[in-house]
């Protein structure tokens, strides 16, 4: 599993630093009493054989060595958690915790990892939700504004023609007033699904306003936009599939081809003017900014 981005940029932890402290304490706690005992024996019993003292020191060294390796084993969970945190902070990758680790500390480490995994999943879900219009499942206006600016910049660099369509449902306020908000919501979902089914892969659609949608057509001119509009218009009029409300729906369309010399604000002024003209012509009409 690999998250979209690390949840933190905290300073990485050096497990050797912590392990060194623990081992230092263990060694000091072992050697100081032994050295004190040796000195005491030498002072109280000078006749104590040097061989006996050497044996005591050798035993101390052996015990200290055993203690060192045992402590290293006890500190393995800390190493695992450190690798987990450092890897996650550096790359966003979530490494696995060995299953054979089953004592209280290891359980705490696994629970910590699981908590980070859940937090990361929640963070990614929140990131996805923040881009979507919950009602229609399309991109919302905030996210689509950023995406559109990126696409327009790419079109300027590459010289690729792009055409934008704006559309809204005819008489949507009347539908809401006459049938209620639930019916209006069903109509919005239906039009969104129809429009989405009529565009190519690589093009995209977003909910731009209350009953307004924006369609981005990549590598498309006016004729391509007219084809998309005709498909949407035809499907709304003739599709045997129906939305929950069962109302005959139509939509008006305005469209404009982006010019690399104009700003996005100028583009939307053209789109608004084209959509306004289409609505003046009557329901189900379209108008270009040519």
Provide a descriptive summary of the structure in words.
The protein is α+β, with helices and mostly antiparallel strands and 290 residues long. It has two domains: 15-128, no CATH class; 141-288, Reverse transcriptase/Diguanylate cyclase domain (Alpha-Beta Plaits, 2-Layer Sandwich), CATH 3.30.70.270. 60% of the residues lie in helices and 10% in strands. It contains nine helices and five strands, in the order αααααβααββαβαβ. The chain has helices at 15-44, 50-74, 76-91, 104-129, 141-158, 172-179, 181-197, 222-238, 264-281, and strands spanning 162-169, 204-207, 212-218, 251-257, 286-288. α1 (15-44) packs antiparallel against α2. It is rod-shaped. The two termini are 49 Å apart. Residues 1-13 have low confidence and may be disordered.
Low-confidence region ranges: 1-13
Terminal-residue CA separation: 49 Å
The helix content is: 55-70%
Mean pLDDT: 81
Tell me the total number of β-strands: 5
Oligomer: single chain
Helix-strand sequence = HHHHHEHHEEHEHE
How many domain modules? 2
Write down the CATH topology of the largest domain.
Alpha-Beta Plaits
Which structural category do the helix and sheet elements fall into? Answer: alpha+beta
Using brief descriptors, characterize the structure shown.
single chain, 290 residues, alpha+beta, Alpha-Beta Plaits, five-stranded mixed β-sheet, 5 strands, disordered N terminus
